Amino acid sequence: MDSLDALVAQVQGFSGTDDLLHLFSLLKQSDELLHNHAPRLQYALSSLDPAKHSLGYLYLLEVQSSGTLSQEQSENFLALASTFLNVCIAEQICLAPEKFNMVCRRVKEQALQLQEPLRAILPLQAAIRKLQPSSEFLTAMHADFLQMCLLAKCYKASLSVLEDDIFEIDQKRTGLVPRDFLLYCYYGGMIHIGLKQFGKALEFFQHAITAPATVLNAITIAAYKKFVLVSLIQLGQVPLFPKYTPPVVQRNLKSCVQDYVDLATSYVTRNIADVKGYITTHEDAFKSDNNLGLARQVIASLYKRNIQRLTQTYLTLSLQDIADNVQLDGPKEAELHILQMIQDGEIFARINQKDGMVSFQEDPEQYNTSAMTMRLNLEIHNIVRLAKKLTSVDEQVSCDQVYLSKIGRDRPRYETEDFDIVPQKMYTNL
Amino acid sequence: MEGGGGETMDEMGGGGGGAGGNRAGGGGGTGAIAEQIDVESYASLYTGHTKVARLHFIADYCNVRSVELEALRMAFEEIKKGENTGLFKECVEKINGRLGPSHTLDQEWIDMVERRAAQRQEKLETELNGYKTNLIKESIRMGYNDLGDFHYGRGDLQHAFKCYVRTRDYCTTSKHIISMCLNVILVSIELGHFVHVSNYVSKADQTPDVQDPVVVAKLKCAAGLAYLESKKYKLAARKFVDTNFELGNNYIDVIAQQDVAVYGGLCALASFDRAELKSKVIDNINFRNFLELMPEVRELIHDFYASRYASCLGYLQKLKPNLLLDIHLYDHVDTLYEQIRHRALIQYTNPFISVDLNTMASAFKTSVAGLEKELAALITENQIQARIDSHNKILYARHADQRNATFQRVLQTGSDLQRETKALLLRANLMRHDFVMKGGPKQQ
Known about the structure:
Chain B: This is PCI domain-containing protein. The complex is a heterodimer of chains A (430) and B (444). With 430 residues, chain A is mainly alpha-helical.
């Protein structure tokens, strides 16, 4: 009992920045101590201020939440953890990222247990921001955070986190595992599907598929299934694996998802009856993957795609012909479809109800407004920034020890040729 | 290939073409104007194995009893002149006694031929072994050659092929090589192994001093046939139109001059553009000689060039039933005809900004609805740049707006580039930190 009090006192005393490392080593050693005094932790916690003594608070929280908790303990823990995550000091917790991750994970688990994923969203978001050295870093909490948003159906809440481009993976600072990355990509893709941003969803799923790997895992397979469906909706076909996909994935992935691949092949024939039939026969397979809704969207997208193809061929077409061409049930249904597409801005057309004719028009976008100029400007700036980043990464790699030692070994020793004296140019008489 | 003459047809020059009677012929019955194939004059264009093969083919596919029987009768006669007992039995089976007692299984003849053949084979083989022990190159070569000829005559094509190929090692002059190649080509065409045909044609081409124009022409024909089989119509057309007219009747154990005209003409129409058609076919004096033998093909090419599409398509329909009976062309007729029709449609719409579909339909002798469907298909494949006004039945040429297209492409490329670069940076980082998903207890 005394040792616990002593520890608390130390935490209080050493939480100034100078002694932080000392405190950290003390805390690491006192793990067992904390476990022994589990019942008294509540009291200890109340005497500490999470905003000042973050590191110690963290350790105590972690121990308190280990093992199964009762309903009341859960609530308690969740409340404490939420405040803690919101107010803790970044530098302090950065010393112990694994513990931090564990606490966050417990938060998620308890929220799930209490069936209130909503409660975990804000704390996890705060946690991400605290642990990230910059917004380009991925943390272990990204995946959990996105999962909570999905379960709570609060897609908008996740946008601020999702929109950050992730470039940096630093295992030491964030305690990350490859699985977290894959889950991040998978959940991120799902959220984008929920927001109907299919293009971004494809990006995320593609990250999951092309991540370096030596074995195939279930997350990649699930991501690929969704990838196939979303790319059918967005692009009309499934793109081939890019060159940099790990060979293990390239060889084995297709055989695990045969249903989806077959669906893709039948989609390309643009025959609605076939696709519909296929989906009904394999309904169970899709349902078990929770992809039935997506599959239905695939059918809707096929109608749209067929109608769009008609705009390429015809200037005017009767509603009856459209219905026949696209295998709809009649001119009325064709009219409804086209109306919807005009409203969504997917085609440009006018319906003449007197004749039952639809006349297709060109995209009125002339690309000559100031808004367009500004958009082009913005894109150019983005790309220049990206290019700068690329050069800086390139420079970093060129200065890297390992790289240089490898290069140095392979290069022959003809160094004089590397110095290109000013090439002799033709001099004019002027 | 001889097309049966219609009323407008006069005498056809070249090997034995005569105007035949008229009858609905053709496996595949197109319902076009009936043209009967005159089996006798057709068969007289050929000799050797191809004659029998073509007669059998006609018998199998022509669906008309009298033609079938006529073909089988001629095949029977021809086979009896040779030594191929296997083919004899086949022919008799097909006849099935319908031609009377004179055309039945003549077991005596079979036995006699078999005996003779066995003797000859033994003799050739012993001779060959003798030559081999003596190691005289020329004799060994001739020995194998003779053995190859023997097997060929017996209808044992596989053995013949092997023997001819073996002579290769003993060839000393380019003449030997040429004759070896030609033999192999002959056997391969009959076997249907057109890959070998192309190989040996190129081998023969590479032989130094190939001067004899007849040989060159033969090789070109063989190459053309090989391309035709592999559906490379443009290359086939080039070979056929380049064939020297001196070929004459020297290759009638494979192909007749009329065939060169037909194959070359059709493939050219299906695959050449206007410039090439004019320079290589219409202005080609050499090929004109071939076309004289098949005036219909000549007329149809000229019609096409002069945009008289209705008449051109009419000639094609007339020729179709007989073409379907040609052993090399029958499975390509539909594709070639389709391609020619498409080319005609595209060529018709090319010079106009707007085209009235009614006029076009009458020019092509088809219905407006059918025409619209065909045009829609061509537009979707991007062969015609136009749009159809289905309400007023007009086709409007459409030229893509370059400026808009460029802007769209630019924006698209920009976003693609950004996406790819970000993915690349991410992956580079993953690999730098060795962030690889490794095997282990499955986590889910």
